[in-house]
Each structure stands twice: as C-alpha cells, then as structure tokens.
Amino acid sequence: MREFFLFCILLFSGATNLQAQTEYRVLPRDFNSDKTQQMMRSYLRQQVHAAMDKRRSELEAALKSDKGIFEYQQKRRTALVDSLGTLPERTPLHAQTLGTIQQPGFTIEKILYESQPGFHVTANLYRPAGAGPFPAILHPVGHSENGKAYESYQRANRLLVQHGFIVLCFDPIGQGERKQILDATGTPHHRGSHEHQELGVAPILLGRSLGTYMLWDGVRGIDYLCSRPDVVQSRIGCTGNSGGGNLTSYLMAFDDRIVAAAPGCFMTTHRFKNESPGPGDAEQNLYGQIGAGFDHPDYILTRAPSPTLILAATRDFVPIEGTWDAYRQAKRVYTQLGFPERVNLIEANDKHGFGQRLREGAVRFFARWLQGRQLEVFETEDTPVLTDQELQVTPQGQVLSLKNERSLFDLFTNYEQQLAENRPPLTRKIIRQVTGIRNLKDLPDPGIRLLDSKESSISPQRLIIIPEPGISLPALYWPDGKATPVLMAPSAGMNSSLKTAQQLNAQGHPVLVVEVRDTGETKTRTWRFPGADYYIAHMLGRCWLAMQAEDLLISARWLQSQNKDKSVELQTEGELGPAALHAATLEPALISELKLKETLNSWHELMTSRNAFHHLHMAVQNGLSYYDLTDLDTLRSKK
C-alpha cells in the first residue's frame, strides 16, 4: 500500500511538472484581479487626472476676469466642434404631419422630418390650444426602448404643453421607431444601448462620433421648430434625461438658439464618471475631449451666462459628487459674469430618471426664462399616458419600412466614399500623423525583467517587457537558433501559441512570444462593458491600435538586438492584426515578414457590419479620411 501511495505521489508530481512546462504564467496570479486597479485602468486614470488637473488650473486662471472666461469658453467651444468632426450639410427637412391626436387643451402632431436626405426622424409635437406663437422646447430622450413614448417623457411633455410650451420630442437613432438593425422579420435585433455600441465604431473611422449624428438630428429639430409660425424663435429651450441629458448638453453648448437648457441625470465630471459607472454608450464619448481639457461642466461654462438648470437625482448611478462639483464650477463662472441666478441645480431624492420633481422643476425653470413667469407647478397623479401605437408616426412602426429610406449604414458608406475620393497619396508620415505611432528611434528602450536566471537551462525564459511606466508585457523567450527571429503576439494569450513557438524554435528560430497590453494576463476584466478602457483612451485622444503597435515595435527591436540585428518575422492573429500591419508597414527594415490569420482585412467592412463592436479596438479616429487597411499592404510591397 505504501509503495502504491508513493507511486501516486510521483505520478501526480510528474503531471504537475508537465503542466508547468506547457502552461505558463509570468505576472502574479492576482494581477488585474482588482477591477478598479487593473493595469489599463490605472494607466489611463493617471492621464485623465493629469488632463483634468490642468483644465482646473486653466479655469482658476480664467476666473480672474471676464476676458479670461471668454478665452476659456472659446477654447472649449473649439474643442467641442473638433471632437464632433465634420457635420452633415443642412438639407431640406421635407417635414410632414402624418396625424394629429386631440387631447384636453392641446394636440399631439405626428411629425416626420429628414435630418439628412432620406434619413427620417420620428417625433411628436405637443401644441397648446390657441393661435400662439409659443415658446418651444426640444426634448431629446434617454435610452428608452420605446423612445418618445416612454411614460416619464410623455409626462414631461404634457406638463410643459399644459403650461404654454410647444414641445418637440423625437426618437434618437436606435430607439423607438428608428431602429437601424432589424432581423428578417423586421423586428429590432438589439436593445437601444447595445445597438448604439454596434453603430458607434464606423463613425470613429470617419472622423465623427455617433453623437455627431444624434446631435445633428437635434439641430435639425430646432430648424423645424423655427420653421413653424406658431413658435417664438427667440425663446427655445432644451431638456432631456440620461442619454437625453447627454444630447441636451451637446446641443446647449453647440447651438446658440437654445436660450434655456435643463440637462437631466447626466451632468457630473469625467474624474468621477470614469470610475463609476464608467464611460457611457458610444455617442457619449467624444474623441479627444479629455485630452483637450473639456469636462462635463464645460457644456455649461461654454454657454455662460445663458440660463441653465442641472437636474439630478441623489441615488443616481451618475455620481452626485461630480454633479455638485460641476455645479460649483458653473456657479463661480456665472457669478463672475454677474448672473449667478441663471444657473441652478435641483436634486431629487430619487434614482436615475426623469421623475416628478425634476419634471416640475424643469417647467418652473422654463416658465421663468422663456415666459417671464414665476410659477408653482405640480403634476397631478391622473396624468394619462398614451400607448406606443397611439404615438406611432410611421405606418409600420419603423422608419426602415418607409419606401427609399436610408439607414445609418447607408450614410456611413456614402460618407466613406466621399472621403475615399479625396484621400491624398499615402505615405508613412501620414500614417504616423493619423495614428500617433512614433518613429522607432523615438520609442524608449524597454525595461526587461528576467524571471529566470540567464545561466538557467530552462527554455523558454520568462520575462517582463516594460515599454513605459505603468505597462508590463508578459513574454516567453526561446533564445537558441540562428534562423530568422520570430515575434509572436497571440491575441488569445501566450499559452495559445506554445505549440507553434516550440516548433519554430525546433526549426532553428529564436522565438519571443509577447502579450501586448490588454491581451493575455493584462487583458482588462470588463467592468462596465467591453471597450470601456478604449473609450477613456479615445477621450484622451489616444489611439488604442497605436499603443499596441508600439508594444510590438519595442518588442521586435529588443528581439532584433538579441540576434545580431537580424530583421524579425511577426506573427499574430485576430484583433491584433491591424496593429501588426501598421507596425510592419511603418518599420519594414525591422519587420521583414508579416503573417496574419483570421483578422479584419478592411475598415470598409465596418461601414455595413451589424456586429462591429468587437472590432472597436481596431478603429482609428478619422482613419478612413486617409487610407484603409488594404492600402497598407500596397505601401508595404513598395518597402
């Protein structure tokens, strides 16, 4: 029995050693285990804080004079316009009223207008009885599946119209009657938030944002209101909750026709929001805004001293601490300009949503600043709510069912074609300018930590490559061999490539397997949705693809230095393919051969992809204005 027991121990020990030889880990097992402190979050957090600290210093300096505030405002307006990208052209609205619902004291008109040719917006227009003209409120809504028909939004519209306001409440892209991804039966394929993520990749490549398209729908909604003889054009307001608070913030900072604005359950600061709950949907994350020093309160500060009311909820997932910080910043600016009463905050003891006290507060605010009246407004409990079908504008409930309707994918494709027709001849200099990938000579020498002794006969050697402070790249290195050194960067982690690495080494190739940032042991554990860290980097003005491409270049250069300066063969697959293609194109003397498997071949494919979100990390801001991935192959062939 004793001999059998010893045999079992030896057998188990042998199996354990075999596993140790075939499955590797370089970083400690608790690395990235704390979601709030994992590598990429911590790395980006420092940059966010630095940018926001710099912005705060600029604001403090600006507060010393009206001139300083004006210069601060101009800088932030420029940053906002730059982050939105080129806006669509103003084209005929072709507005139609497709039906009217009679209600006690007001009517609801079913409005259809084109924010771009053939691209329709569905809206309900609440109009008081009487000849008018009336002040008007634009109401972009939050992330409700039924868009404008959501109960609390209907209640807000009814309360406003009952107090003498025309209200235009419209469906955002991807919600209500404006779903862009339908299945074979015409049924929406995703919930609104997920559809926004799928729709959010292509605009990045086009130099825009999904928010650009959503903002333009709202701008054209104001155009429609101004076209009506029953609207007082000089008295237009805007309010919305959550995603509608986001759009209200964009619109009130962008469009000077908005006299008074009340964004709800959105206003906070990047410092707080990036921590919890994290970046919002695609349309909420504008390129470079953090890097340019544009924070949430700047949506208010850029319009100071125009009347603005922050609507907030105590138990909101939007951090209330950031909301009060934003309010204090705004109050100081408005006070410096001599109009402290024009900015205010309402905090309801409630959860996220356009609740009753916020609705009442919004009506009182607009009555003061658009009607010149001081009102006590209270909503009655018996407010009726209409069904989705009753408020429906299109015959079949979706704009894509309209004859000759263009989808957002059609707009993406059309704009990409315009960009392609005007691309300059592609050079490596242009690629570097677009991506931010530095020249090889400008990349720092990495720190190298060997976890196994140089004298050890263990192969492969475990090591950590440190391309810059805060970033650790786990790696395995087989040093023996005189053939072409091979750099492998498996997107699925080092253990997925062990067999191939061992075979290459057996054939005489020195092999370095490296996990570039956000792969393998350093891959971000999802803390809100996949891509949250990408969007923080995006708002910083950082290119994710460029960061991974530089990791590859630094690793390849180190491998070259260990092998008599021979050029390197690079192998990768999947999501790292575009980064590897950029690295090989920019440094052909370093990377002489490139082998890619199962990767994205062209950014053009994402213009019509209904599943683009998993390619998010490959998207380069404004990339398609200058080239597509296929153009890199052509440039590589020229060496």
From TrEMBL:
Annotated GO MF terms: hydrolase activity
Keyword Hydrolase tagged: yes
InterPro entries attached to this UniProt entry: AB_hydrolase_fold (IPR029058), AXE1_dom (IPR008391), FrsA_esterase (IPR050261)
Acetyl xylan esterase domain segment(s): 110-263
Domain of life: Bacteria
A Pfam family the protein falls into: AXE1
Keywords assigned: Hydrolase
PANTHER family per the UniProt record, alphabetical: ACETYL XYLAN ESTERASE DOMAIN-CONTAINING PROTEIN, DIENELACTONE HYDROLASE DOMAIN-CONTAINING PROTEIN-RELATED
Protein name: Alpha/beta hydrolase family protein
